What we know:
Layout: H1 11-17, H2 43-51, H3 65-78, E1 82-86, H4 89-100, E2 106-110, H5 115-127, E3 131-135, H6 140-145, E4 151-157, H7 169-178, E5 182-186, H8 191-194, E6 204-208, E7 222-226, H9 228-241, H10 247-280, E8 284-288, H11 298-304, E9 311-316, H12 320-328, E10 334-335, E11 345-347, H13 359-364, E12 371-375, H14 381-392
Parallel strand pairs: 2-3, 2-4, 4-5, 5-6, 10-11
Antiparallel strand pairs: 1-7, 6-7, 8-9, 9-12, 11-12
Helix pairs in contact: 1-3, 1-10, 3-10, 4-9, 12-14
The structure holds pyridoxal-5'-phosphate.
The site of pyridoxal-5'-phosphate has 15 residues, from helix 4 and helix 5.
Amino acid sequence: MSEHDKPAYRPETLAVRAGQQRSQFGEHAEALYLTSSFVFESAAQAAKRFSGEEEGNVYSRFSNPTVSMFEERLAALEGAEDCVATASGMSAIMALVLAHLKQGDHIVASNSLFGATVQLFSNILARTGITTTFVSHTDPAAWEAAIRPETRLFFLETPSNPLTEIADISALTAIAHAHGILVAVDNCFCTPIVQRPLDLGVDLVVHSATKYIDGQGRVLGGAVCGAKKLTDEVFKYLRTAGPTLSAFNAWVLLKGLETLQVRIEAQAARAARLAAWLETHPKVARVFYPGLPSHPQHQLAMQQQKSGGAIVSFEVKGAREQAWAVVDNCRLLSITANLGDVKTTITHPASTTHGRITPEARAAAGISEGLLRVAVGLEAVEDLQDDLARGLALI
Length: 395
Ligand SMILES: *Cc1c(COP(=O)(O)O)cnc(C)c1O
């Protein structure tokens, strides 16, 4: 714990100060320690460091001072006792599961998770004998009904992508804990600025730091946050299996955390304005944004989130042709599936992120051909409106 980690500090302060360790040179900004290994003063010290008897760095697959600064700062923002960083969001999810589950164990997961998470659970982890039942994101009774004696983990992500459906974190946690089951939340969409699942009783939070925590689309990274007795297992897995965060990426993400709050608040404010404008547009059939009073779960969203976040989805009046016309007439919005960037992005989920699932499954999940997802960045809302209005006018 550094001198700046005193819990009395508010999140804005923790974001720019928590976790910093200064070297003997007194650098003001956090240093980037590009070194694969660390030297010891003696053979005896080397032995103690390897056995864990003495704390300290050994090898950057185990720990690195720049990575540690990022971990402490993110832990402070999530209100977590501890955090371990990973090479990507997917390696955070994989590490969490393989650290805590074994062959024969069972997961209950939301049916509207990030696509690669679904693939990880249903293909890769299934081959190791860890099975998953996917249940309705918004129906706690379905989660309870899916519990088996070997269920070890509830895994969810809220709001869902791209329909922004809200999972009731407190209700699902109460069900899981009554059965001794761990709960993990992928908090990538909200970040700790908008939602702090650990405060609602969740055991572990995972992040794709690639998205909002970087915020400028440069590097991949991930993290698992929670009580140290749980993250220690993840750390043991990582130091052996290897998908740890690189020092350079940690340094970029550490600086990303400093502006996370101002970025998210500004992006969410723009998203709220854009959603309200879309809702009044004659060529728009429906808007999905938790911050809108018309969102069916607006109240629940506002109970567990500080704002609606910065992802807005909407259905145009029409199908694929009309949705693609909106995309293809954008000059400003970037056509990319990434999100969380200060540059606004637009995606047609049915033909990209959700293109691999069958049309029937897509329809059942509510991903229509007219649906578009906008991850709102920092441009002027009026410019975003003008860009979308061009394609909408052609419908
Ligand atoms: C992008 C994303 C991931 C995966 O993260 P990577 O850093 O790309 O591995 C996981 N969950 C959600 C919600 C995401 O958006």
